[in-house]
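Summary of Year 1 activities. Much of the first year was spent building the evaluation harness for sequence design. The harness presents a backbone, in tokenized form, and records the residue chosen at every position. We chose the following record to illustrate the format because it has been used consistently in internal testing since the harness was completed.
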């Protein structure tokens, strides 16, 4: 395999990258696109691909946008970066800030960030502030902190985040030779669906693709403001990554839906967990619960209406991010005496 070229160097002609932009990298992008045979059999859809964004350096798609946002912050002489987060944004911001030599402040909803993500923010040396409030409260506070000069905001309201994240759409088009018929994606703050739609539009303009996909976004039923058409004051879901009641890129998501002829619908926590388990145990692909919302939604759509022939599901984050949820998939592990009889008995359960 050739040595990895930094994402922002590889796609520099499609990004606001100048000679003065530092070529910051941790090896992001170029993530696997993997066929999902068990899901194809179950749904009757002939071709389903999983875009494994959990293979990025900090374990989520956020790295694509964060590398550009932090490189541009360096170029602009930022003294610090800051963000609100349900977890993955903070892990990514903390890593790239450490790499860039910039202080990083993260504001999190206390008690609602998965352990893997929290441990990353701490390990990378970010200043972690946990508020007794929601992600939406944290984002409002972070905007205020940034306006007050505390640092550069690197949430997806920063346009460099969207530009970096659109590169995933380019990769999908390059590997498949065109855009897929459908794209299925979880929706939280709605930056990623906005970024993919921008990417697919630019891919068509620059002849990387002939068509654009229909965009299917999925929110958790307890945190589905776009589906309901109104802000959710107290969003609730086990998929903590998408526990968001007032998405910043709401308009971008609606535009992607309407211009592409797709939809944004809700999936229940039960459906999310069922898809999470299916992916792990039938496909050997371990994503986090929020990511499984894309597959939960596809399974639901496949039971009604017309079936597409080719789908890409974006698996946004790695399953290891949320070990507390993962261990609920199996029975409690009972400790056994270190003898062959005891181990054989334990195998049989
Ligand atoms: C695994 O980290 O909002 O619709 O603060 O971590 O672009 O928000 C995470 C979002 C999907 C939703 N899957 O993407 C944060 C944060 C995973 C995520 C989403 C998130 P957006």
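For this record, the design step produced the sequence shown next.
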């Amino acid at each position: 395999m050739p040595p990895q070229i930094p994402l922002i160097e590889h796609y520099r002609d499609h990004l606001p990258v100048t000679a003065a932009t530092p070529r910051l990298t941790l090896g992001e992008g170029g993530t696997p696109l993997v066929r999902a045979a068990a899901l194809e059999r179950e749904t009757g859809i002939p071709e389903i691909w999983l875009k494994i964004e959990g293979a990025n350096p900090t374990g989520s798609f956020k790295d694509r946008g964060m590398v550009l946002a932090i490189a541009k912050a360096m170029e602009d002489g930022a003294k610090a970066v800051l963000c609100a987060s349900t977890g993955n944004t903070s892990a990514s911001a903390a890593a790239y800030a450490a790499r860039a030599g910039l202080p990083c402040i993260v504001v999190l909803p206390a008690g609602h960030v998965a352990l893997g993500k929290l441990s990353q923010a701490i390990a990378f040396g970010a200043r972690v502030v946990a508020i007794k409030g929601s992600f939406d409260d944290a984002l409002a506070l972070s905007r205020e902190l940034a306006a007050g000069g505390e640092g550069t905001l690197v949430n997806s309201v920063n346009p460099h985040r969207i530009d970096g994240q659109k590169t995933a759409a380019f990769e999908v088009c390059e590997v498949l030779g065109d855009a897929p018929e459908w794209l299925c994606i979880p929706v939280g703050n709605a930056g990623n669906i906005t970024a993919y739609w921008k990417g697919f539009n630019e891919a068509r303009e620059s002849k990387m693709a002939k068509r654009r996909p229909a965009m299917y976004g999925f929110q958790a039923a307890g945190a589905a403001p776009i589906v309901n058409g109104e802000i959710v004051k107290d969003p609730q879901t086990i998929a903590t990554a998408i526990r968001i009641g007032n998405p910043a890129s709401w308009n971008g998501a609606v535009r992607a839906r309407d211009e592409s002829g797709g939809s944004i619908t809700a999936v229940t926590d039960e459906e999310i967990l069922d898809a999470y388990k299916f992916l792990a145990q039938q496909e050997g692909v371990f994503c986090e619960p929020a990511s499984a919302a894309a597959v939960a939604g596809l399974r639901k759509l496949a039971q009604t209406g017309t079936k597409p022939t080719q789908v890409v599901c974006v698996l946004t984050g790695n399953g290891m991010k949320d070990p507390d949820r993962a261990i609920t998939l199996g029975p409690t592990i009972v400790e056994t005496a270190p003898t062959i009889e005891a181990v054989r008995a334990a195998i049989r359960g």
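Residues 60, 85-89, 156, 186-192, 241-242, 288, 290-291, 316-317 surround AN7 (CB under 6 Å). Quantitative recovery figures across the full test set are reported in Table 2.
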